[in-house]
Amino acid sequence: MKIATAEFLTSAPTLAACPPPAAPEFAFIGRSNVGKSSLINLLVGRRGLAKVSETPGKTQLINFFSINAAWLLVDLPGYGFAKVSKDRRADFNEAVADYLEQRGEVLRHSFVLIDSRLPPQKLDVAFLGWLAAETAAPYSLVFSKADKQSKSKTQLSVQRFSREVVADLARPPVATFTTSAVNREGRSEILGTIGTLLGS
Ligand code: GDP
User: Fold this and answer.
1) In DSSP terms, which residues pair with 139 in a beta bridge?
2) Which CATH number fits domain 6-198: 3.90.79.10, 3.40.50.920, 1.10.510.10, 3.40.50.300?
3) Is the C-beta atom of 53 inside 6 A of ligand 1?
4) 46 vs 6: CA distance, rounded Å
């Protein structure tokens, strides 16, 4: 898919403040500092579109970007702190949980970022457990920062995650990507997937 236009649309602090559902939405989420803003800028080809964070976890707004006037890229606030609570949903930003649970069919797909260099992190495991069990939209995994280590180490990391985490999820991810904002790995694959899901 070619990106012809990418424009910031609006920011929303809550689900109620989100724009009325119109175009298909593709959401991006991950732990703070996982490389989400860098990936979004890589995908849309605009360096400053999503603000690369200097203070991890600072951005708590849902940001909407209109892409090619055809679909919306939704930048969800990163999760960054672990709490152990009975209500698993309470571990994540309320607006994020509401959006992922209740946005409806306009949310076509979520991309969950995982740092490719790390062993499975508790917070990612908790988030994916909740996402797979409590929400309906299809999702994929995106292993970020792949340039920071060898391809074989990244593959081992993906395999370990698959064995130790994905195997226990109520709904499996649709696809798995490896990406790098430095060498652009994964860009055409993710955009190709979005294009296919849009039917273009
Ligand atoms: P966010 O908090 O998830 O939005 O993460 P950012 O995009 O702000 O990135 C966090 C830090 O990781 C920044 O210092 C980025 O420059 C760095 N970073 C992000 N993506 C990559 C990548 O693919 N490769 C490398 N080497 N560094 C990255």
Assistant:
1) 110
2) 3.40.50.300
3) yes
4) 8
**Band (73; pLDDT cuts 50, 70, 90):** very high
Sign of the Cα pseudo-torsion (176, 181, 184, 187, in order) = positive
Q: Which two tokens stand for residue 163?
A: 């064995």
CB 190 within 8 Å of CB 43: yes
Average pLDDT for 169-184: 98
**Mutational test site, ligand 1, from 46, 52, 60, 116, max ligand atoms within 8 Å of CB:** 52
CB 175 within 8 A of CB 138: no
Name the least confident of 38-42, 81-85, 191-195.
81-85
Q: What is the ipTM metric for this complex?
A: 0.99
**Rounded Cα–Cα distance for residues 6 and 68 (Å):** 6
User: What tokens appear for 158 in the block?
Assistant: 């993906």
The structural domains of the chain, with segments of one domain joined by +, span: 6-198
Q: What is the pLDDT of residue 193?
A: 98
For ligand 1, atom 27, name the residue with the nearest CA.
145
- Three-class SS string for 122-150? HHHHHHHHHHHHHCCCCEEEEEECHHHCC
